[in-house]
Amino acid sequence: MKKTLIYLDGGNDCLYSANRTQKEINEIKKAAKESAHIGFLSGYHYWNNETETVIVLCREKPSVFEIEQRRKNGLRAAKWYYL
After folding, report:
1. For a designed S-S bond to 24, which of 20, 30, 55, 60 qualifies (C-beta 3.0 to 4.6 A apart)?
2. Half-sphere exposure of 50 (CA within 13 A, CB side)
């Protein structure tokens, strides 16, 4: 199981930083949808020679430019998904 980092509000607040099952991640996404988040960016990055999954919950869809900037800044394979 990989470490999963989950951020709220476009990356401003780190909500979780732990090994999570897919069921736990789905519950977090469901709660985010109920609190006005419309989607998320999903990707990964390397830290201490390990791959970490990164999920950034957003209240509005980021622009293509912003997604590209996040990719350049280390969020590899960043892709937008609606909740």
Report:
1. 20
2. 10
